[in-house]
């Protein structure tokens, strides 16, 4: 699965979040995918409200670890965050794109993306978070994009 290396500026993603259930195994991530799909649906329902302060037309989700739990935040990119937020640090990221609207399939592809980086001779994963561009799950068009933080080996 090919990826493209991109340098991203610091980005502040603001919205609302939940704690994700821990999958029983890597082969059964469906429960986690259901929760993510539910939060994307909630974001879609209130998209007019959250886009008032947005810096662009995209919608984002961030997977991150905090207090030894996996969190999922959905929202938009903003200048300042009046609500729950996560700051994506500036740096190098591996960008993967998938043409899918199925959350479970997307989560399987994300797992494959991490596997691809684990096998890379040039790069390694450099953080315990990732940035998803979920605009296609809101609009029904385009590609799902994920950015994984990387460091040169």
Shape: globular
| CA-based gyration radius | 15 Å
Q: Number of folding domains?
A: 1
Which range best describes the helical content: under 10%, 10-25%, 25-40%, 40-55%, 55-70% or over 70%?
Answer: 25-40%
Assign the CATH class.
Alpha Beta
Which sequence of SSEs, written as H and E, runs from N to C?
A: EEHHEEEEHEEHE
Structural class: alpha+beta
Main sheet specs = 9 strands, antiparallel
Percent range for β-strand residues? 35-45%
The average pLDDT score comes to 91
Q: Superfamily at the CATH H level?
A: Regulatory factor, effector binding domain
What separation lies between the terminal Cα atoms?
19 Å
Q: Strand tally, please?
A: 9
Task: Predict the CATH topology.
Answer: Multidrug-efflux Transporter 1 Regulator Bmrr, Chain A
- Helix count equals 4
The CATH architecture comes to Alpha-Beta Barrel
Low-confidence regions: none
């Amino acid at each position: 699965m090919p990826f493209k290396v991109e340098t991203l500026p610091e980005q502040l993603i603001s919205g609302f979040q939940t704690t994700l259930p821990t999958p029983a195994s890597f082969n059964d991530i469906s429960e986690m995918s259901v929760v993510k799909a539910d939060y994307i649906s909630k974001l879609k329902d209130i998209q007019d409200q959250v886009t008032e302060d947005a810096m662009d037309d995209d919608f984002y989700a961030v997977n991150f670890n905090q207090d030894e739990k996996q969190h999922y935040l959905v929202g938009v990119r903003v200048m300042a965050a009046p609500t729950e937020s996560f700051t994506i640090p500036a740096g190098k990221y591996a960008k993967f794109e998938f043409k899918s609207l199925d959350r479970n399939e997307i989560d399987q592809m994300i797992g494959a993306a991490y596997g691809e980086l684990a096998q890379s001779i040039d790069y390694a994963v450099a953080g315990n978070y990732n940035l998803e561009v979920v605009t296609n799950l809101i609009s029904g068009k385009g590609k799902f994009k994920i950015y994984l933080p990387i460091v040169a080996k």
